[in-house]
Amino acid sequence: xxxxxxxxxxxxxxxxxxxxxxxxxxxxxxxxxxxxxxxxxxxxxxxxxxxxxxxxxxxxxxxxxxxxxxxxxxxxxxxxxxxxxxxxxxxxxxxxxxxxxxxxxxxxxxxxxxxxxxxxxxxxxxxxxxxxxxxxxxxxxxxxxxxxxxxxxxxxxxxxxxxxxxxxxxxxxxxxxxxxxxxxxxxxxxxxxxxxxxxxxxxxxxxxxxxxxxxxxxxxxxxxxxxxxxxxxxxxxxxxxxxxxxxxxxxxxxxxxxxxxxxxxxxxxxxxxxxxxxxxxxxxxxxxxxxxxxxxxxxxxxxxxxxxxxxxxxxxxxxxxxxxxxxxxxxxxxxxxxx
Length: 339
Ligand code: ADP
Ligand code: MG
Prior knowledge:
- By secondary structure, the protein is an alpha+beta fold.
- It has 10 helices and 18 strands.
- The protein has 2 domains: about 1-200, Heat Shock Protein 90, CATH 3.30.565.10; about 205-339, Ribosomal Protein S5, domain 2, CATH 3.30.230.
- The strands form 4 sheets. Strands 1, 2, 3, 4, 5, 8, 9, 10 and 11 form a 9-stranded mixed beta sheet that branches. It has a 5-stranded mixed beta sheet with strand order 12-13-16-14-15. It has a two-stranded antiparallel ribbon with strand order 6-7.
- Helix 6 packs antiparallel against helix 7 (about 205-215).
- It is found in: Nucleus.
């Protein structure tokens, strides 16, 4: 049974960066304004993430790493909404099957923090057959999640990973994208033992300022902005809105940079990507590519963020119409500024 769980967990958690993505989303769901990440060996040895969010109640700790444990049920009225927001209660459970997981957490009302370690979906055993209860400890409001020895029990998965520096750059990439999408949250990422962070963003910034800071001045000089939503005359279709920051004709990169958030989750849609890239046909010279940040908010019931845990690719209702409207808006802004 534990082997099956482990294999299933490996489908959710592919590499340090995918574990990190889940953890960052949890921090943001918890209302954090500060997220600090510490990494050793590209996250394979250690991946630690500290937030200042709402914390986890002591009473919830024993079941925290059980599959389908999610505190996010009450906020949503029906199950389809939960699963489409990515709230499946699978992240911590999965991690506990493929790594050593430790949680230190404190809510505002608790007088001290609590520490708990997990293994295979349960509180870890101190001695065979004896699980360890959460222990009181010192700590600030918020949660610190520590993942150690990722894939220690999955040698093939471990050997499929790239070098520590490659895994680390994937971690930085995920954090950078979430920092751009959450300019009011401060993100810090550093290697264990190093004093200087490799990523440090201030809170109370704005998305364009965050883009400038993280991707450089040359991008931000050329940024355009567009907002679009479904109009009332779209009839009975679901309401949606999109906000985009994208480069103009002066910005020409060798590769497309495309950041897509749907309902505040970083996702991929090759269809959307291709369509938006197409908008630049005839605007950019051949072999040149834009930077595009797009945040789409859509009825959660109409988007399938998790078609399959191994795929980040999303599908949503009225996709064609929505993609077309967004492309139109971008094209209009692009051409208006060029004439
Ligand atoms: P999900 O996010 O789908 O609910 P997870 O496995 O990612 O499932 O997390 C399980 C639960 O653990 C969450 O629903 C939440 O209650 C709690 N949790 C996890 N991380 C944090 C955090 N950083 N701050 C507060 N609560 C958290
Ligand atoms: Mg989660």
